[in-house]
Structures are given as structure tokens and as C-alpha cells.
Specification:
- It is a peripheral membrane protein.
- With 534 residues, the protein is of the alpha/beta class.
- It has 3 domains: 22-50 and 292-404, Topoisomerase, domain 3 (Orthogonal Bundle); 61-285, P-loop containing nucleotide triphosphate hydrolases (Rossmann fold); 431-526, Recoverin, domain 1 (Orthogonal Bundle), CATH 1.10.238.
- Helices cover 45% and strands 9% of the residues.
- Strand 7, helix 9 and strand 8 form a beta-alpha-beta unit.
- Helix 1 runs antiparallel to helix 15, helix 7 (172-182) runs parallel beside helix 8 (199-207) and helix 11 runs antiparallel to helix 15.
- It is elongated, with a radius of gyration of 29 Å.
């Protein structure tokens, strides 16, 4: 049983609130503390529709965005390892709408108009984008183990050249912004042969501004170019991204070929396998971080709602009571950047918390400032209190929930394919080499290590730490690494090394120099034969 503060009679706090889960706490916080502020200052008209229970209770979602024929739908097919209803794959723009791929007991397709009236699905507010969008939005349901943990949103291929001038009939960038605010991960897919970022793609990426922590980039079909070309392609991609994603940090780019077909160029096979495993681990961690992500998004929303309230109430305060309202309104809209600066100083707000000036100026044209509400301090204080105290308690609840019942990681489909057995990442390599061999793997090179050992003047079959250090330092590895190798190799903890322990130390140095990590404890297959009973 969790509660906000110290539990009193019946496990309730002073406000009579009691919460069983973090999700329930988030939902209650939003409804009681933040929603009144949003409704008072027309936040939903300017920024984002109100959140519903399904937004808090839904599974983590992954949004795929990319130009046509970059492999978005194939990527989903690769993860699920089966076709999904409504799937179409081809070199031309095949996916002409949004497809929410979700778990269902039986296969089927739910059309958009039916989807937005389902209270159990987090899509009800998409109704605002009209029939042109809803006719191109479906939910593809199927019983798949991967979808028990996450949902995946497939998007239309972003057009380039003349095609991008054709109207879609709905605001594509705004739909992406809506999804971007609610999903847990945004994956931008690029084709190794199609790196140009069209105007529409650039607008799509800009629509995801503010969600930079969710964005990952995948350079797909990387096996279709050789190593030299891949280096050039990677550099060109980073240059292109730098022009549209205005952040000082470098975006994480995963290289690979995400489909179940033979690699055309195998020289980078190990790189592609390592990259795909990194991406899989990132996706697998989504259920574990889902509550934290929702909490983070609620904090971002609360900060924006506060700033919005300050802007609206300031505009109201500056309006004349009777004459010259239209003229004053135009003046205030023109002075909006200056107003932002005034509010930053007055309320100690970071410039990054303010909405886009140009967009705000455009939207304000359609409102009567004299009808805006004045500043209600109690609503602001309620949100401040939520951010200062309630959120901190929720953070501790998240840790407590995870310790009692850790969320299951994403499993099934491609996530199961190479975790165990000889095709698991790193199997038979580095520290794992020799795990399934009958002989001690170190013995294969022991004759070379013995030659070095006997030049170090062993006494009673052992060399001192001083003599061992001189030889180990030749590897040029840092002392911290060599110290760890010494602890692993000195099996009997006597501060000296016999010939087998020295050979083991040399083997571990070789493993580290080849770029592999060292274990925290020595694996059984590396324990020297003479020390197996110790």
C-alpha cells in the first residue's frame, strides 16, 4: 500500500487521498491539481488536449517516422516476426495512413472513427483532426507476445520532391506532435541510399521539438553499402540531422539492417549485431521506465501550463477596459517576445519553458483578450505545491513499486531470437570464449606465457607482485584495469602468481586489449585447473 505522505487513519493522508499505484497517483494529480489550471487558461485550445485515464494506463508506445521505403513497416514485421493486419510493404509509398499496432485476443482492424470513441484506447482526442485523418487511421490488433508489453505506431511514408506538394487533407505535423507528446520512444528511420531530408520530413522532425529525449535514429539497410561508403553515409546523415535537430548533443544513431534476410555485405556483421542489441535493449527497457516517462511528461506539461497562465493573465491585465481594444491587442501580439522577457524576470522562469513565439502570436489573433481570465494565485500555488512535494513522493513510489514487482521487459518476436544459445551476442567471444570447451582455453597459449613467466625469476614456482607488475605494465593498460586483472588472476589470494595464474592474467590482458569487458567475478571455465578445488 502506497500513500502520498505518512499514512494516518485508514492509510489516508491529510487530504483524504490514498493511491494504490503510481499510475493512479499521476491520474489523480493531473485531474485535481493541473487540469483546473489548464481549463481556466484555455491551455487545451493553444497547446495540447486534456489527458484522459487511458493516457495514464496505456502500454508504452513506440512511434516510427521516416520517408517512404525506409523500412518502417518492415521494421515492425521484424520485431513481431509475423505479419499484422493492414500491413503493406513495397518500394513505393504503401502505408498511406497511421496504423496503431496493438495487442488483441484475436486479429482484426478497428477503423479510426470507432477507435476515437473507445475509452480504453488513448486516442479519443485525435477526433479533433477530423474525418480526413480518421479515414487514414486504423488500429491493427493481434495476439503477439511483443505487443503484450508495448504498442507500435506506424506512420505514412514522408514524401519528397513533387509528391510532398500534394495535400494530405489533415495537418500531418500536428498529428505527429500529438503522438510525440504521448509516446515513450520516437524512432526516425533513414535509408542508407536516401539521406536527403525533404521539406515535409524537416517539418515533421521540428514538430517533435521538446521530445528530444525520446528520439532515436536508425540508419537502416546499412548492409547494402561497404565499410568506406558506410562511413561517408554516416557522416552525411549526422550533417543532415544537425541542420534540423537543433541540440548540442549528438543524436544516438543505430546502424543495421532490420529485416530477416541475408546481409549483402557481411564485413560489418559484428557491428550490426551489437547495434541491434543496443536498440533492442533500449526498447525492452520501455515498460520499466514507463511510469517515470509519464511522470516526466506531466512535469513538462505542468511547467508549460504555468507559463501559459502567466502569458494569458498578463495579456488580460494590459487590455484597456473600454476603448482601443483591437489596437492594444495588435500591439501586445507584436510585443510578445518582450512580454516573454518580462515574465521570465518577474517569475524566474527559464526561457526554454516558453512556447514558440511565432505560433503563439498566430493563435492569439483569434481571441478576445478582454475575455481572458485574470491571474488566479491559488491555481498557480496548487501546481507549485504539486511540483515541489507530490512529485517527489511519486518518485519514491516508483522505486518502491519496482522493487516489489519489477515490470516485465519486452519479450517475444525478435527480442527472443538471439538471447540464448550460440547465436547470443558475445557468445564464444571475449571472456565467454572457451565456455563450452573441454580444455582450459588459457592452456592453448600457455607455452608462450610460460616463457615469459620463467624470465621473471619465480621462487618456489611463484612470482612476486613486483615482478608481475613489470610485465603486466607492458600492456599499457591503466592501473585500474590491471588491478582488476590481478584480483581475478590471483585465485588463492596469496599476493603472488604461479604459472597458471600468470597465464590467466595474460589471457585477461589479451581479452581487454581486444576490446571486450572484464567480468566482476572469474567465470568457472577460466579458473586454472590446479585451483578448481580452492
Amino acid at each position: 500500500m502506497f500513500s502520498w505522505v505518512k499514512q494516518e487513519q485508514g492509510g489516508r493522508n491529510k487530504e483524504g487521498e490514498m493511491y494504490q499505484t503510481v499510475t493512479e497517483g499521476l491520474q489523480s494529480l493531473y485531474t485535481k491539481k493541473l487540469l483546473p489550471l489548464e481549463e481556466t487558461y484555455l491551455f487545451h485550445d493553444f497547446h495540447s488536449p486534456a489527458l484522459e485515464p487511458a493516457d495514464f494506463q496505456s502500454k508504452p508506445m513506440v512511434l516510427l517516422v521516416g520517408q517512404y521505403s525506409t523500412g518502417k513497416t518492415t521494421f515492425i514485421r521484424y520485431l513481431l516476426e509475423q505479419d499484422f493486419p493492414g500491413m503493406r510493404i513495397g518500394p513505393e509509398p504503401t502505408t498511406d495512413g497511421f496504423i496503431a499496432v496493438m495487442y488483441g485476443e484475436s486479429e482484426g482492424v478497428v477503423p479510426g472513427n470507432a477507435l476515437v470513441v473507445d475509452p480504453k484506447k488513448p486516442f479519443r482526442k485525435l477526433n479533433a483532426f477530423g474525418n480526413s485523418f480518421l479515414n487514414r487511421f486504423i488500429c491493427s490488433q493481434m495476439p503477439n507476445q511483443v505487443l503484450q508489453s508495448i504498442s507500435i505506431i506506424d506512420t505514412p511514408g514522408i514524401l519528397s520532391g513533387e509528391k510532398q506538394r500534394i495535400s494530405r487533407g489533415y495537418d500531418f505535423a500536428e498529428v505527429l506532435r500529438w503522438f510525440g507528446e504521448r509516446v515513450d520512444r520516437i524512432i526516425l528511420l533513414f535509408d542508407a541510399h536516401k539521406l536527403d531530408i525533404s521539406d515535409e520530413f524537416s517539418e515533421a522532425i521540428k514538430a517533435l521539438k521538446g521530445q528530444d529525449d525520446k528520439i532515436r535514429v536508425v540508419l537502416n539497410k546499412a548492409d547494402q553499402v561497404d565499410t568506406q561508403q558506410l562511413m561517408r553515409v554516416y557522416g552525411a546523415l549526422m550533417w543532415s540531422l544537425g541542420k534540423v535537430i537543433n541540440t548540442p548533443e549528438v543524436v544516438r544513431v543505430y546502424l543495421g539492417s532490420f529485416w530477416a534476410k541475408p546481409l549483402q555485405n557481411t564485413e560489418n556483421r559484428r557491428l550490426f549485431e551489437a547495434e541491434s542489441q543496443d536498440l533492442f535493449r533500449d526498447i525492452q527497457s520501455l515498460p520499466r521506465n514507463a511510469a517515470l516517462r509519464k511522470l516526466n511528461d506531466l512535469i513538462k506539461r505542468a511547467r508549460l501550463a504555468k507559463v501559459h497562465a502567466y502569458i494569458i493573465s498578463y495579456l488580460k491585465k494590459e487590455m484597456p477596459s473600454l476603448f482601443g481594444r483591437e489596437k492594444k491587442k495588435e500591439e501586445l501580439i507584436m510585443r510578445l517576445p518582450e512580454i516573454y522577457t518580462i515574465l521570465q524576470r518577474e517569475h524566474h522562469i527559464s526561457p526554454g519553458d516558453f512556447p514558440n513565439v511565432a505560433k503563439m502570436q498566430d493563435m492569439l489573433q483569434h481571441y478576445d483578450f478582454s475575455k481572458f481570465p485574470s491571474l488566479k494565485i491559488k491555481l498557480i500555488e496548487s501546481v507549485d505545491k504539486m511540483l515541489a512535494t507530490k512529485i517527489a513522493v511519486l518518485m519514491s513510489m516508483i522505486r518502491e513499486e519496482e522493487s516489489k514487482q519489477p515490470p516485465a521487459m519486452v519479450s517475444g518476436g525478435a527480442f527472443e531470437g538471439s538471447q540464448d544459445g550460440p547465436f547470443g551476442q558475445g557468445y564464444g567471444e571475449g571472456i565467454s570464449a572457451g565456455a563450452d570447451a573441454e580444455d582450459w582455453i588459457v592452456s592453448r597459449d600457455k607455452h608462450r606465457y610460460d616463457e615469459i613467466f620463467y624470465t621473471l625469476m619465480p621462487i618456489n614456482g611463484k612470482i612476486t607482485g613486483v615482478n608481475a607488475k613489470k610485465e603486466m605494465m607492458n600492456s599499457r593498460l591503466p592501473n585500474t584495469v590491471l588491478g582488476k586483472i590481478w584480483k581475478l588472476a590471483d585465485c588463492d589470494r596469496d599476493g603472488m602468481l604461479d604459472d597458471e595464474e600468470f597465464a590467466l592474467a595474460q589471457h585477461l590482458i589479451k581479452v581487454k586489449l581486444e576490446g571486450y569487458e572484464l567480468p566482476t567475478e572469474l567465470p568457472d571455465h577460466l579458473v586454472p585447473p590446479s585451483h578448481l578445488q580452492i
